[in-house]
Amino acid sequence: MDLNFLSFRKKVDQKLMSIVNxxxxxxLGQFVRILTQLVALFYLTxxxxxxxxxxxxxxxxxxxxxNIFNDMGTGTAVIQRQNASQGFYNYIYRINVFTGIFIMLxxxxxxxxxxxxxxxxxxxxxxxxxxLSFPISSLTIVHKAKLEKEMAFxxxxxxxxxxxxxxxxxxxxxANLNFGIYSLIFQTLITISISTLAFLKISDLNxxxxxxxxxxSDKAGVIGFSGYLLSFNLxxxxxxxxxxxxxGRFFSATVLGAYSIAYRIMLFPLQSLTFVISRVxxxxxxxxxxxxxxxxxxYFKALQGxxxxxxxxxxxxxxxxxxxxxxxxxxxxxxxxxxLLWLAxxxxxQSALSTxxxxxxxxxxxxxxxxxxxxxxxxxxxxxxxxxxxxxKTLVFLYFLANLINFFPSFILMKKxxxxxxxxxxxxxxxxxxxxxxxxVLLKVLQSFYFLDDVWFSFFFNALLGVCSYIIFYTILNFxxxxxxxxxxxxxxxx
Length: 495
Known about the structure:
The chain has helices at residues 3-47, 50-71, 74-80, 86-118, 123-131, 133-137, 141-149, 153-176, 181-202, 216-219, 222-250, 253-287, 292-319, 321-328, 335-362, 366-387, 392-418, 422-447, 455-477, 479-494.
């Protein structure tokens, strides 16, 4: 056999193993993160009032904006840059540290304006404490990005898991000691501090503030790439945080608290599925940027996998949202179940949309991201501004419609990069989502025919029925794909 072929085959196998190993560790890390979030949802919400979560959501309006400036897309720039020099790393490091200090001072200085807008004096100490996180986290943006660039996800995820578990334990202890909202604040600070110290310890980078080893080539392209990415993130910020800004102003802290928890539940597919795919595929796509056909195939496989999991999960949740809320939350959180009726299907759309950003960044199309961000912000803004004149349920429904419309321009531009046909895209979406729609219809129809007094039995009966029906519907529409997967698995077991 040709030695060149054997060498090529070995390199391909090594790349495949690297990707599989990366998915394994990122998936494990995301599982631990979801576990800690579930503890916060189902345990801490019994100890901390909805109004306190509403205060945290108000503070998050400022913190989310500050987070954008704290990174400014420089971490992504490190991953995307090929053959980066020491001077380039020093340049990014200097930007991040100075920006982190500036953001901390900025948040503290504008806190009176935030307090005045929401008319809640309790926000003063909350904002000042959370502001401390920015100079701390800015120290290791470059270190972490370089590790991800090298696909060293095992080390990254171990640090993130350890930090998140310690933070969760601290939050539980403080909540039981009646620290209320400060349990969540100190959880954030200790998690960031631990991960920062760990990344500094394991990184092989020796960064400096000195500018004498930074050349013009090190600076080249950073402002253009990160500038459009920063602009997109800013636009995306207003699209994603305008709801909290308006709900906190025109409704109440209790309503905002319930909405923020329902929104977190909605984000689970994004955080657990899309985040894993995007985190691994960004360096993968960047390295194979000239092989568009391969990237297209990989992308469609990832999209089908995400939709095949998020669609049944979220539509199943929408069908059982009332019993789900009654089962896992106190009576004071009843509004969550009503909001999930439209937030859950919104999560399916967002899980597909969020994958597009990875492709745009890998191909350096951050300008396109900015344009899409403007379109999305306009649609979300119209939905939220209109919604506050009605009620919170109407606002959530309009938010769903805005996301549905926003789907189309994103994938029109995606087609220009990956050169797929609309028929290919429709096929992937139909085979992934339509079985979940059939499952949802089946559950809603059957719920109208039977009445179950026991909440536990009702919820788990519907969950079991949903899982079984989805598997049947999915198998019918994807029979050939499932058969190929079985063949591959059998061959691997034999070998």
